[in-house]
Amino acid sequence: MSIDHRLEDLTHWVHQERPTATLEVASADASFRRYFRVQQGQSTWVAMDAPPDKETLIPFIDITERLLAQQVNAPAIFQRSLEQGFLLLSDLGSTPYLPELNTKTADSLYQDAFTALLQIQQANVEGLPCYDDALLQREMDLMPDWFLAEHLGITLSSDEQKMLQGVFNCLKANALEQPQVFVHRDYHSRNLMVTVENNPGVIDFQDAVLGPICYDLVSLLRDCYISWPEARVYQWVSDYQTRATEQGLMSAVSTDVFMTWFDFIGLQRHIKVLGIFARLNHRDGKSGYLKDLPLTLSYVITVTKRYPELSDLLTIFERYDIAEKIGTVEIVA
């Protein structure tokens, strides 16, 4: 049995200020980070282990400070060691949105999430990376590279690559025409914690960028881990649009324009996620995300059927029987 030297080092580091504290695994995410719940007496914290040779803590600390300045319920930092890759954070609890969401709770939980999102979108964006053409392209390229080629063994012809790039160009242009705001970049039911006060707690925000106003909204409402009837989603989108306009985050636009923004940036995200889930399996040995491919693919198919300018992507997927190979989930109208 191998010894977990990083956990030993983390425990020693925690004990410097909390000598009787115990550590238990809290969670791991899709990156190299691990989280441990620290308890001493009746008090709890969360320790983050982020190996310095894999990633730096500087973006997490920077974004944390920006969000806390907006009164977002992000974890406060009590102790830090950049050299070792350790942080000790306030404990936002162990109840993510995902298991708590149902037809009765969804309206209340999502309205709270909209309130937090509107606070996030007004955070300081100075010096943030931009969700520019190059980043949007790199993300979407993960789909043909990892989902089609690596996962399904499909190599597109040069004509098919041109068809796909035409759709990508359309999605990039739409993303860049939207109002640009602070974007969490992974704002969904596994990264929102149900809290008694100032619900929700917000985590996993270190990859924040300046980007399209609908990005986090579609991450939340077309979540890769839970789906809702389209009519209910559209009502929530309308609720958010009203609040965002009233708070001056965007100028008034028609419902049709806003829904197109929502659909197009959602498709960009879900194209990326198909690639990420496949890469997590094939490169990182994290096969658990494969079960979420059918819902993600279903979002892609649903939106591409709605807009003629996106039909080339649907044509490619139908040509290679992608839905039959992966499976789909019914999304109720």
Please supply descriptive tags for the structure shown above.
333 residues, 49% helix, single chain, 5-stranded antiparallel beta sheet, nucleotide-binding, Aminoglycoside 3'-phosphotransferase, Chain: A, domain 2, transferase, Phosphorylase Kinase, domain 1, Aminoglycoside phosphotransferase, alpha+beta, 12 helices
Which of globular, elongated, flat, extended, rod-shaped describes the shape? Answer: globular
Strand content: 5-15%
Task: State the end-to-end CA separation.
Answer: 51 Å
Helix content: 40-55%
- Number of beta strands: 9
Give the biggest sheet: 5 strands, antiparallel
Number of domains: 2
Keywords: ATP-binding, Nucleotide-binding, Transferase
Domain Aminoglycoside phosphotransferase: 23-235
InterPro entries: Aminoglycoside_PTrfase (IPR002575), Kinase-like_dom_sf (IPR011009)
Pfam families: APH
Secondary structure layout plus pairing:
Blueprint: H1 5-15, E1 22-28, E2 34-40, E3 43-49, H2 58-69, E4 77-81, E5 86-90, H3 97-100, H4 106-120, H5 133-152, H6 158-177, E6 180-183, E7 192-193, E8 201-202, E9 209-212, H7 215-221, H8 230-246, H9 255-282, H10 293-306, H11 311-319, H12 322-326
Antiparallel strand pairs: 1-2, 2-3, 3-5, 4-5, 6-9, 7-8
Helix pairs in contact: 4-8, 5-6, 5-9, 6-9, 6-11, 7-9, 8-9, 9-10, 10-11
